[in-house]
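Team,

Forwarding the record for the chain on the shared tracking sheet. I've put the sequence and predicted structure together so nobody has to dig through attachments.
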Amino acid sequence: MALEDEEKGAGWKEAAAARVTSPAGTDLTAGIRRLPVWAFVVIAVVYLVIVQGVSKLLTAGMHTTYAAPTSVNELWRSITVPVLVSLVFVYAVAGVLGWWRPVFTTIGRSAAGCGSSQSSSPSPPWPG
């Protein structure tokens, strides 16, 4: 009985490993760093501080309302610059962790991102 359960477990693990590997036979996660939960929380907090803090610093004394710029200067200071700085931060984190390939490749994923390796052409939203 225990031997049968062990054999079933090994088959399940092999099937799961076969689903995880990419169709090209390359391991997308080879050589990347694993991220503990506490590090993810730190990265998320730093990201939020960048987005909110840079906006607050650049618009100090301007008497602007949140997410409602009334001039191009307010738009740059409250939205564009903080988003660009946070984008640089995200790219830096992906580079430091070695996540370029897993983040920016779509090997084995459909265009819709639903995880299917079969590429199907989506139907257009209009009739006909």
